[in-house]
Amino acid sequence: MHENSVEPVAAAAWPPPGDHALLGARDCLLVVDLHGDIDLATATPLREWLDSVVALRAPAYVVDLRRTTFIDSTGLNLVLRFRRRVREHEAGFAVVCAPRTVRLLRAHGTLDVLDPAPGLPEAASRIAGR
């Protein structure tokens, strides 16, 4: 008789969001709520977490930047990468942000690409109208 030498595979686990992100469902949207400083120091764990969120294959995603206190070009590139990956799966995408972040997006040259909404209801409307 043969001995079974196959060991069980550990259960899959999503990377924890850490101190700078939350995930929730609001207004029929999967909302990625980024907060605090989104910069080079937080990029690696956030990138891994955002990749796991894309793997959920939701029909629509919103990145909420209203609670960010600082976001640099590395953080904006994370948002742009997340947007590209979401769009590859033909899911809806929108960004919500405060006026101070709109100024940053304009200076970074990504205002027209991300086309931020002031709140979740407006983001939902934009996704529905795509």
UniProtKB/TrEMBL annotation:
InterPro entries listed in its UniProt record: MlaB-like_STAS (IPR058548), STAS_dom (IPR002645), STAS_dom_sf (IPR036513)
Domain STAS: residue ranges: 29-96
Gene3D superfamilies noted in UniProt: STAS domain (3.30.750.24)
One Pfam family, short name: STAS_2
Source organism, top-level taxon: Bacteria
PANTHER family: ANTI-SIGMA FACTOR ANTAGONIST TM_1081-RELATED, ANTI-SIGMA FACTOR ANTAGONIST TM_1081-RELATED-RELATED
Protein name: STAS domain-containing protein
Lineage start: Bacteria, Bacillati, Actinomycetota, Actinomycetes, Kitasatosporales
